[in-house]
Amino acid sequence: MDLEVLKEQVRAITTDIIERSAIKAGQIFVLGLSSSEVAGGIIGKNSSTEIGEAIVGVVLRETLKRSIHLAVQGCEHLNRALVIEEVVAEQKDLEIVNVLPSLHAGGSGQLAAFKFMENPVEVEELVAHAGLDIGDTSIGMHVKRVQVPLIPIQRELGGAHVTALASRPRLIGGARAKYKEDPIRKF
Predict the structure, then answer these.
(1) Positive or negative torsion for Cα 110, 91, 61, 8
(2) Does 3.40.50.720 match the CATH number of domain 3-167?
(3) Is 147 helix (H, G, I), strand (E, B) or coil?
(4) Other Cβ atoms closer than 10 A to 45
(5) 16 pairs with which residues across the strands?
(6) Least confident stretch, 42-51, 140-149, 169-178
(7) How far apart are alpha carbons 64 and 108 in whole angstroms?
(8) Fewest C-beta in 10 Å: which of 91, 111, 120, 164?
(9) Are 21 and 164 in contact (CB under 8 A)?
(10) Is residue 62 within a helix (H) or strand (E), and if so which, with residue range?
């Protein structure tokens, strides 16, 4: 796999989703990643440190440019806990848990987050405003309601299926209510 091509594809997908999701500075963007799927394998069976670092490095740079906080979801062996900067966990009053990810418990994305973030910690749960799911890792549990699916400009990355979610406030009030224009661009 050509990692430079992969990085450029990830940058394009990430930029697309950030821009169309209407996520704002200070909000959380969650990344779910199966490097096994990107490599053409089965989720959890073919983890790649190099692929994890390539993808997380790009997504982290793109979120930091916009002052958006990145959270990287782990696998089911860590109950889908998330790596995030400690200062963000403290600011948002998230419960920090004591675990260190490994390649097969947390995954390559979490290992990369621990490598690239300034002071990473694990939290059990959070509520993100948008996110990117590379390899069908089920990020929906971490994105606030109401979730809006976004179709990325590229639906596959290597062998992995790519999906994304944004969120918007609930529409309340019924037939007589008026609403602000939805800033999310689905297409």
Answers:
(1) positive
(2) no
(3) strand
(4) 11
(5) none
(6) 169-178
(7) 20
(8) 91
(9) yes
(10) helix 49-65
Residue 185 has pLDDT above 90, yes or no: no
CA 179 vs CA 21, 45, 118, 170, 174: distances in Å = 18, 46, 40, 10, 10
User: What residue type is 92 in one-letter code?
Assistant: K
The amino acid occupying position 161 is H
Question: In 58-123, at which residue ranges do the beta strands (DSSP E only) sit?
Answer: 69-73, 82-85, 96-97, 120-123
Structure-token pair, residue 64: 């930091």
* CA 144, chain centre distance (Å): 13
108, 135 Cβ separation under 8 angstroms = no
The SS3 call for residue 167 is strand
The residue whose two tokens read 């692929």 is: 51
% the chain with pLDDT above 90: 83
Letter for the amino acid at 81? A
Beta carbons of 58 and 14 less than 8 angstroms apart: yes
DSSP assignment of 7-47: HHHHHHHHHHHHHHHT--TTSEEEEEE-HHHHTTS-TTTS-
In three-state secondary structure terms, 52 is: helix
Q: What are phi and psi of 183, to 5 degrees?
A: -80, -10
Tokens for 5, please give them: 């091509």
15 within 8 A of 29, measured Cβ to Cβ = no
